[in-house]
Design a protein that fits this description.
The protein is mainly alpha-helical and about 160 residues long. It has helices at about 1-15, 25-35, 50-60, 60-70, 85-95, 105-115, 120-145, 145-155.
């Protein structure tokens, strides 16, 4: 579903601006591999997606690793770690809009808020929320699509 959402956004962005430069192969590869660390033993101090990034870099997939590196929610909390390239932003946003299906940002954050997270994780949710909304509005605005329409189109 993350791929479906991201690729729909690519299509809409290119319809709005045919000169948009998005490396679709890089994005698709990152989409397919973004959660591989969930099945990889983590080293001490690693958190999501550090183990996957480590393995991808070891395999010479630095560019893919760099897209994946910025997709966790906590990365958007600081300007120096937030997703910057369009591929990073599309993976990040599509990942945050989905939970088995495209649900949108507000519903996804409500789902997270209902989970029994520790204080640090709850603080990340609070800091990240307005930043994710801003990124959503920028990307969807550039794509000329509302969140509701995106949800409908990805069903």
């Amino acid at each position: 579903m993350v791929g479906k959402v991201a690729l729909m956004l690519v299509k809409k962005l290119k319809q709005q601006d045919a000169t948009s430069i998005i490396d679709e192969n890089l994005l698709l590869t990152a989409i397919l591999l973004h959660d591989i660390d969930k099945n990889i033993e983590k080293l001490p101090g690693e958190r999501h997606p550090d183990a996957g990034v480590r393995i991808l870099k070891k395999e010479g997939m630095d560019e893919v690793a760099e897209v994946i590196r910025t997709h966790p929610l906590h990365m958007i909390c600081k300007d120096d770690t937030a997703p910057k390239t369009i591929e990073q932003q599309l993976l990040f946003l599509a990942d945050k809009m989905t939970k088995y299906e495209c649900v949108g940002i507000n519903k996804r954050f409500l789902m997270w808020k209902k989970e029994d997270y520790d204080e640090e994780s709850q603080a990340i949710l609070d800091v990240a929320y307005p930043k994710v909304l801003k990124l959503r509005d920028e990307i969807l605005g550039s794509a000329g699509i509302s969140e509701e329409e995106l949800i409908r189109l990805t069903k």
